[in-house]
Amino acid sequence: MARQRSWLGRLLQDHVRAIDFTLAALRRRPVGTVLTAFVIGVTLALPAGLHALLDNLGEASGNLQGSLRASLYLKDTVSAERGAALTQELARRPEVKQAHYISRELALQEFRSYSGFGEALDLIKDNPLPAAIVLTPDAAQPQARIQALLKDLAALPEVERAQLDEKWVQRLYAIIELVQRGVLLVAGSLALAVVIVVANTVRLDIENRREEIEVMKLIGASNGYIRRPFLYTGLWYGLAGAGLACLLVEGAILALAEPANRLAGLYDTVVSLDGMRLEAVAAVLATGLGLGWIGAFWAVSRHLRHIEPA
Amino acid sequence: MPRQPGRAVAEGRARARPIADFSHSHPHARSGRGSYLYDSPIPIPDSRKKVADIIHFHHVSHRYGGGPEILADVNFRLGKGEMAFLTGPSGAGKSTLLRLTALLARPVRGQILVEGTDLQTIKRRHIPAFRRQIGVIFQDPSLLKERTVFENVALPLLIRGASGDDIGRRVRAALDAVGLLAKEKAYPPTLSGGEQQRVGIARAVVARPPLLLADEPTGNLDPDMAREVMQLFMRFNEVGVSVLVATHARGLIERLPHRIAHLEKGRLDDLRPAGLTEKTLDFG
User: What residue of B is the nearest CA neighbor of A309?
Assistant: First the structure.
């Protein structure tokens, strides 16, 4: 047991030394370090920023959906009792947040008060307005499910016509879905770019330290020992780049918040552009670390084994 | 007058604790006189295999690529705790013999045993552990220019996972042994050729390897410095380290009481087997 602790202690000590050594080496060449981190940061900022934008758009579309109303106009043959019962049935469905029955009389009354055509309506003997059920779909439900719900409701024997006329919201959903896929593709390509940037930087580092590696191998350093500082270098580049990406995205969100609000105001809604959530920041940092490690591992696996003491 | 390497150690003025006799961990130490580099818990292969020879070349031939044979059917033994010189003209195969011993190359034919281990059977992943048991010194000491003398000498201890205190003690003792304690913070480019060579020697011996291989270690040094370096090797040998030195400086070694083997055109002859010394120099 004591022997195992000692082994672990030595391993820990080696890691602490590798961390110290690599941080000191990066500090010794600040310009190169910052430039590399900046390239990685900008590369990661694009998918991270698009993801944050999508997050905000998703939230905004959720708000818009909260204000969506679907109107089911009932046939004249449907009695007020049946209409009220149908409203209660619909309100129990999971896709429906609220259902509200408007009888023919109530519709006429509302029309009379809001339209200003009260006297003109007195000239008509029959009430021309149909009874209606006004539905508020549950915003948490997927758009496709809400569309399916409306299709079902339009097919009900009591319903004359179902109407959801917020076409632009549907277009927004379609755009969001398209952008989401695009972001995934872009993120994949840029992740590869980060791996290549780190791998190339570490490869140059290996070339610069070729002599040192030869000496280390000559005196019996294991491959793991020699590899360790390069892997940590990759991790630091990834972490620094990811941190920078988060800062860039936050800066962009701050810069865009006001114009976005103005734009939303034109659509009678309020959009507040939120900063990156803690989970998103953690995900970006973890991604940076992971990509940095992969890049460094790729470089050391390819190049280290070819260096042997002369 | 230049400071004699290791004088502080020899006179018992070492800064660290009294430096332990290497024979504590080396049963082959021939003399109690040789104070070495401090006592330490760093494990040394303590004659795990009971063999008399630390190096044994058995009908070894070698060539680089499709070139001519550098070594041709060489048979050679170096006993444990023995010191020997390998001489011969340039291109005779001296460096190749050392490189094969340090597993920097593998022979095209024959068998090489180091401490009883057949080098042909060592797997690639075990080579680092093997090399940790050998101290290698080249004509160019291959020091890392961006690291201080202390850091250069500390490398073998770092890769063994020695603690900071232990590294401090051992590195200073090794630097003291080669007379460079005052230069521990210097960078190699600021040192003379002789000093750089001594740093290389300190690095080779700091982890107390049982076998020391030196390839033309005095090639860049003036005669006085070359003598000092040879004295260092003798001191290490006196405390049990097996030493094999390749050199073409015949004038320097002929008066030393050690075996000389001569390599020429790939063939090896023992010119002066151990015990047939004509005259012994007093390096006291």
Answer: B104
